[in-house]
Each structure stands twice: as structure tokens, then as C-alpha cells.
Write a structure and sequence with these properties.
Elements (H helix, E strand, L loop, with lengths): L1 H23 L2 H20 L8 H18 L8 H19 L8 H21 L5 H8 L3 H10 L11 E3 L2 E2 L9 H16 L4 H11 L5 H8 L3 H21 L1
Antiparallel strand pairs: 1-2
Helix pairs in contact: 1-2, 2-3, 2-4, 3-4, 5-6, 5-7, 6-7, 8-11, 9-11, 10-11
Length: 250
């Protein structure tokens, strides 16, 4: 009997403070109600602990949901405020994980499926006493086997590693990353030049090859190709210009 009386008294106090805020604009009443309902926000935030977010951040998100519930409550509804605030706070926490903790953006539908998958995995683990298989998750969610696999793979996009993360004794992730390799740049340049060479005629490609791969002089190239040295000079000049234009277009 005492519990029912206390509950009724608390509900009446909540509505009194809400009325003072909504009808009279009493910010003190709003802040007081928020302070008294903060344990509820903390309790709901605790449901999302151990998911990579700090508890302080989760409580802050839950508090935002609490304030939205206070501001959005309809006094004409015959419902206790805590019953209205709970889904509002939980919705704010879900939006936080759905929209703000993805280091790599993925489609919204995939984010929703990822959250459903997490809930289903927890339920099946409790029910089966072991981790569920992909097929069992597929059956439970009524989605295809491939969609479950795609959702599981997408979980890697949720949290990004920091370059400051330790990966060994006195070593961070940044220490394990290689520097720029000049050979890579040269290889890329060679590939671009090779593609641009396709715009030249067979004779012009041969002249360029003899000059820059075989390192022949213009006089030697003249003897190999059977044209004058002046023509070799002109072919090289025009070919290099054409290659440059092709690379700029790419």
C-alpha cells in the first residue's frame, strides 16, 4: 500500500512540475524535474554500456532525450511522465549509435539491420546458451544469409582505430605504418606513361622506346628507324607533347 502511495505521490509531483513549466514557463520547475528524473536517464544509458562509448557520453545523450521528453510531454494525456520519457530517452540513445558512432558512413538501412542483428544475437545467445550461427540469425531476422553476412562485415565501420592505439610495448599503430615509397610513385608514373603511349603510332612509340629505354642517341635512332636525325628530333618532341596531353586528360 505504501509503495502505491509513493508512486502516486511521485506521479502527482511530476505532473505538477510539468504543468508549471508548460503553462507558466517556470524554468526552475523544468530543471528540478530533470534533476529528479536523472536516475532514470542514467539507468537507461547503462543499457548501452560496453559498446565502445564512455558512460559520461551516454548519460549526456540520455539527458538530451530526457529534456526532449519534458518539453514534448502532452499534459492532456493520462500517462505518467516516466512512462512517456523512457521510450523518448531510448530513442535518443539509439539515434546516437545509429548516426554518430560510424567512422565510415554506411546506408541507413544497413545501420538499422545492424542494430536488429545485435539484439537478435543477444536474445539467441541467451536462449541457446551459445553464439548463434549465421543461418540462425538469418531465420530469426527473416533476412537472407548474404544480408546477415554483409551486416556483420559492416560492423567494422562502426569504430575507427586511432593512430595512437598501442599495438605493442612502447609502440603505437602509427609506428607500424610505412612511409611514402618513391618506387610506388615511379610505378604509377610508368603506368600512366604506358597508357598514354597508346596514343602514338607504332613508329613513334619505337623512337621513344629507343631514346628513353635503350638510351640511344638521336643519331643512333636515325640509323635504326631509317629516318633523318632531324626527323627523330621532331618525332620525340611531338611524341612527348602528345604523351603529356594524354596524361593531363587522364
Amino acid at each position: 500500500m505504501t509503495d502505491r502511495t509513493d508512486t502516486a505521490a511521485m506521479a502527482a509531483r511530476e505532473r505538477k512540475l510539468l504543468r508549471a513549466w508548460h503553462e507558466d514557463g517556470d524554468t526552475t520547475a523544468r530543471d528540478l524535474l530533470a534533476a529528479e528524473m536523472l536516475p532514470l536517464a542514467r539507468s537507461l544509458a547503462n543499457r548501452y554500456a560496453r559498446r565502445g562509448e564512455s558512460m559520461d557520453d551516454l548519460i549526456q545523450v540520455a539527458s538530451v532525450g530526457l529534456m526532449k521528453a519534458i518539453d514534448g510531454f502532452d499534459l492532456t494525456r493520462d500517462v505518467r511522465f516516466s512512462s512517456y520519457a523512457t521510450p523518448t530517452i531510448l530513442g535518443e540513445l539509439r539515434r546516437h549509435f545509429r548516426d554518430r558512432t560510424w567512422s565510415v558512413r554506411v546506408p541507413r538501412g544497413l545501420q538499422e539491420t545492424q542494430l536488429k542483428l545485435a539484439r537478435s544475437r543477444e536474445e539467441l545467445t541467451t536462449k541457446l546458451g551459445r553464439s548463434p550461427t549465421v543461418q540462425e540469425l538469418s531465420d530469426a531476422l527473416e533476412i537472407s544469409f548474404d544480408d546477415v553476412l554483409e551486416t556483420i562485415e559492416s560492423q567494422g565501420a562502426r569504430y575507427a582505430k586511432s593512430f595512437e592505439d598501442p599495438v605493442g610495448e612502447d609502440q603505437t599503430l602509427a609506428d607500424t605504418l610505412g612511409g611514402s615509397d618513391p618506387d610506388m610513385a615511379r610505378a604509377e608514373l610508368r603506368a600512366m606513361i604506358g597508357s598514354a603511349m597508346g596514343a602514338l603510332s607504332e613508329r613513334d612509340r619505337e623512337v621513344v622506346r629507343l631514346r628513353f629505354t635503350e638510351d640511344l642517341t638521336q643519331s643512333e635512332i636515325s640509323d635504326v628507324v631509317g629516318v633523318s636525325q632531324m626527323q627523330v628530333s621532331r618525332i620525340l618532341r611531338q611524341s612527348l607533347q602528345r604523351i603529356r596531353e594524354e596524361m593531363e586528360q587522364d
